[in-house]
Amino acid sequence: MRNRREDDDSDKPDRWLISYADFITLLFALFVVLYAYSQVNEGKYKALSESLGEAFGRSGGGLLPATGRVIGNQPSPTAVDPLAAQRIAVRHRTAKGMREALKGMVDEGKVRITETPDGLVIDFTANALFDTGVAEPSQEARRALTAAALVVAPTEYLVTVEGHTDDAPISNRIFASNWELSAARAAAVARLFEAEGVSGDRLAAQGFGPNRPIADNDSAEGRSRNRRVVATLKEPPPRMP
Fold it and tell me: What are phi and psi of 200, to 5 degrees?
């Protein structure tokens, strides 16, 4: 028995190579994983960073753009992306200025201002701007719209103004249907914005009539909500280098 064990041991003098090969294989796999993990799609990372910054109040998402690693107590995504930080600052500043310019209407519930990832949505009730069946803003509405236009003018936002009505038919010597009324109201707001310094190539006006309701037209309250003018402020597409 002693001789057989000694022969078995003498037949495998290089058994250490098995462990060494296993170690080299594991090391190679580790390098492959690290390399793959370091390849971050920059465009997707920026979008993710800005989304996380918005979701967590821009308070330290913990992502590092160069490596994709997650480490606690790192600068927020907006802090490491100056362009994103600048866009967010402009949006907040514009929203604040708009709320101040339209404070009376905001307080009365006649206008709602909402920040979006790429701009603002300003939702006016039509009754706050126009008399029934009319497409020219009242004097009070003109003052409010002028103040809003002065906030928008210095920015680069593209402005789309949408007119909406309820489903009650209209037919008079000026407007044959709600299509014409909604389009004329949107155009009147866009025209006023242009007169106050918003470049015409940044403006668009659309009329949707009763076809995009946000409430039930079976009640007076629902019809009132559906009669609205919506101005959407959107960031322009990136300039080509």
Answer: -60, -30
Residues 23 and 139 in one domain: no
In a domain, 140, yes or no: yes
pTM: 0.66
User: Cα–Cα distance between 147 and 172 in angstroms, integer?
Assistant: 32
Token pair belonging to 130: 């126009």
pLDDT at 131 over 50: yes
**78: pLDDT confidence band, cut at 50, 70 and 90?**
very low
240 domain-assigned? no
Q: What is the three-class DSSP state of 122? A: strand
> Is 142 among the domain residues?
yes
Q: Indicate the Cα dihedral angle 62, 64, 65, 70, nearest 10°.
A: -70
Is the domain of 135 the same as that of 208? yes
